[in-house]
Design brief:
The complex is a heterodimer of chains A (258) and B (375). The N and C termini of chain A lie far apart (49 Å). Chain A is mainly α. Chain A contains eleven helices and three strands; from the N terminus they run H-H-H-E-H-H-H-H-H-H-E-E-H-H. Chain A has a domain at 1-45. With 375 residues, chain B is mainly alpha-helical. Chain B folds into two domains: 2-114 and 128-152 and 170-183 and 216-252, no CATH class; 274-374, no CATH class. Chain B contains 14 helices and three strands. Chain B has helices at 2-8, 13-21, 24-40, 42-45, 48-65, 69-75, 81-110, 125-150, 175-183, 186-207, 223-246, 274-282, 297-301, 303-360, and strands at 122-124, 367-368, 373-374. In chain B, strands 2-3 form a two-stranded antiparallel sheet. In chain B, strand 2 (367-368) and strand 3 (373-374) form a beta hairpin. In chain B, helix 9 packs across helix 10, helix 9 (175-183) packs across helix 11 (223-246) and helix 10 packs across helix 14 (303-360). Chain B is globular, with a radius of gyration of 25 Å. Chain B starts with a helix and ends with a strand. Classes of the chains: A mainly alpha (258), B mainly alpha (375).
């Protein structure tokens, strides 16, 4: 076995993928991190206290991992699910009844809930260790926006099964937009926005209409939430995640006493 | 059904008592008291033996509650499972953080190095960190797979715009906001206050200029920052979510954890307006309706409320400065102080409005319904 292993590791194919030897000494271990596009999110060396599990709780890492789980399961679900009122509910039912690995819907949903819990705990840990303090102020802000986007991802996904739970949760949630000051048809001060008695902001063009593409949670809202859920918000999150990770490195890595 | 009703209406006095203690005002008061007791005695309560006992007792209480059919019905509702998990993990990690804070604070008093000491001790990411990550990932994947296989994701009847469920609830992580709707109009509860939560969170590092406590667990070195943040997170977010999911039933009525969700419980809420209290109750006059010069009558009617809210935000910062915040003001300066106090006052609007509702049955402090501008 050892000889076959050596033969593979010394061959041209292996050597073209991994530019360094087996990570057994300091130099090759550093190379293992430096020369790998995924692992180079990390620095080569970190503070000893910073990797204790009781310090980090690994919650940021788990949140990112869950984001990846959501992408993988979500893409697989997209093969099957159609965001059309006539089909949506029955596609979800079909996932349960006769799709191989239809269980991925369960994983997608529970993973989403778990992600919300882990991201809250991540924020709690960062706060309680004072890790938002200089030089990490800006990264905390990015993190807050990522937290909001995570909630929005979950909220937009909530509608897609198109069952009673989905429709009415989104109805309750989106009704709030109607009350946006100056931009919602029932918001404070909106009544002043009128020309000659004709209201400029009404149920047909207010913030809620923008959110639902209609005055109620209907087919347009389903399509809109689908696009927001599957494309728009994930892309924004991905960009901000890149900034978030990059800034961790640039701001001095995992925090610790100065 | 009758069996449910019988056991739910309190066959035992303990359940009756717990139902009583879970009424919104008691529940919140008890949570706040426990919160401060924990923060004051954090060094004692986080000792492994004591924390372990508390944990074991709460687990036992939870398991005992699971013998009650109404309780089981609530926790088994679609999507309520993650909330139980959230409550447990938040409690556990709060303990973990405060345990380390207690140890660190004690060490600092004795002049010993912190748990996180040794800034120069570096280890290589490969293998030390990469392996920890891998193990976390594998364990969590196993957990997620078990959860996936054991629990079905909820799927109710197909969406029907003509059949509104009662109660209609937002996703669980927004139920703190939905609970705010009981006390505030949607423009505040659903738009302005959530917006200010986000702004406030982003503002934290720019307001808190305290250089200590950066990169290690401590409570003693930054008691005000931690207390304020945790009050917002634990009391005004997590506790309100528990409220909204477990204790709010049909018609958004309140139900104890061992109560049957009776659709026909009456909503006996007769709210009082602040303008009624002032004009009719205190001054003994009718509500003013006449316009005065160019000021419409409804603004004169709401003048007392406008003055009260204005005073809250104008006198509040001054009063807080005079009473508590002189030192903080010196540390952070004029602009930071004002931003911080404004955010603090906005945050405290919620408990204040709750208290006013429970004591005076107050509906609006300012009720300019003509503009949809109600506070």
């Amino acid at each position: 076995m050892g000889r076959i292993g050596n033969w593979i590791r010394e061959g041209q194919i292996w050597g073209s993928v991994f530019r360094h030897g087996v990570p057994r000494d300091r130099r090759t271990r550093a190379m293992a991190i430096l020369s790998n596009v995924f692992l180079h999110l990390h620095p080569v060396a970190v503070r000893k206290s910073g990797i204790r599990l009781s310090f980090t709780w690994c919650m940021g890492g788990l949140t990112f991992f869950l984001f990846l789980v959501e992408i993988v399961t979500g893409v697989l679900l997209m093969f099957y699910y159609r965001p059309v009122v006539e089909y949506a509910y029955f596609d979800i039912q079909g996932l349960r009844a006769h799709v191989t690995l239809g269980l991925l819907r369960e994983m997608h949903r529970w993973g989403a809930h778990a992600m919300i819990i882990t991201i809250w705990l991540h924020m709690l840990r960062v706060f309680l260790t004072g890790s938002y303090k200089p030089p990490r102020e800006f990264n905390w802000s990015i993190g807050v926006i990522l937290l909001v986007l995570t909630l929005l991802l979950s909220f937009t996904g909530y509608l897609l099964p198109w069952d009673q739970l989905a429709m009415w949760a989104i109805t309750v949630g989106s009704n709030m937009a109607r009350a946006t000051p100056l931009a919602g048809s029932e918001g404070p001060l909106t009544s002043f926005l009128q020309i000659g008695g004709v209201p400029l902001v009404h149920a047909g063009d207010d913030a809620r209409f923008g959110l639902l593409a209609g005055t109620f949670v209907g087919p347009n809202a389903l399509l809109r939430f689908y696009v927001l859920h599957c494309v728009f918000i994930p892309v924004v999150v991905t960009v901000l995640l890149a900034v978030h990770f990059w800034r961790i490195r640039k701001d001095g890595g995992i925090s610790g006493p100065l | 059904m009758t069996e449910l009703l019988a056991s739910g209406s309190g066959s035992s006095a303990i359940k009756e008592l717990i139902n009583k203690l879970c009424e919104p005002h008691w529940f919140l008061i008890i949570s706040v008291v426990l919160f401060f007791v924990f923060l004051i005695g954090y060094r004692t309560f986080t000792k492994p033996a004591i924390a372990g006992t508390i944990g074991a007792l709460s687990t036992l209480a939870f398991l005992a509650s699971c013998t009650d059919p109404n309780f089981v019905k609530i926790i088994q509702k679609a999507d309520n499972v993650p909330i139980v998990m959230m409550m447990m993990s938040v409690s556990f990690f709060l303990w973990l953080a405060f345990r380390q804070a207690a140890v660190n604070d004690e060490r600092m008093e004795k002049g010993e190095p912190l748990l996180e000491a040794g800034a120069d001790d570096k280890v290589l990411v490969w293998p030390d960190l990469v392996y920890i990550e891998l193990i976390c990932l594998v364990l969590f994947t196993a957990f997620l797979v078990v959860w996936t296989v054991v629990l079905r994701a909820p799927l109710e009847q197909p969406a029907d715009p003509n059949v509104a469920p009662n109660p209609a609830k937002a996703p669980w992580y927004f139920l703190g906001l939905q609970e705010m709707l009981v006390y505030f109009d949607p423009w505040l509860a659903g738009v302005v206050l959530p917006g200010l939560i986000i702004v406030g969170l982003i503002a934290i590092p720019y307001i808190d200029t305290n250089p200590r406590g950066n990169g290690y667990y401590t409570f003693k070195e930054r008691p005000f920052a931690i207390t304020t943040f945790l009050f917002g997170f634990v009391i005004l977010w997590v506790v309100l979510i528990i409220f909204g999911t477990f204790l709010r039933g049909p018609n958004w009525n309140f139900f104890g954890p061992f109560e049957y969700w009776d659709l026909h419980r009456p909503m006996a809420l007769l709210n009082t307006e602040f303008h009624d209290i002032v004009w009719i109750g205190m001054l003994g006059k009718a509500l003013p309706t006449e316009d005065w010069w160019f000021i419409p009558g409804y603004l004169i009617r709401e003048l007392p409320g406008i003055l009260v809210v204005g005073a809250y935000f104008v006198i509040g910062p001054l009063a807080l400065y005079a009473l508590f915040f002189r030192k903080i003001y010196r540390q952070i300066g004029f602009i930071r102080y004002n931003v911080m106090v404004m955010l603090l006052l906005v945050m405290m609007l919620m408990p204040i409005k709750m208290a006013l509702r429970w004591t005076l049955n107050l509906h609006y402090v300012v009720g300019i319904t003509e503009w949809f501008l109600n506070v």
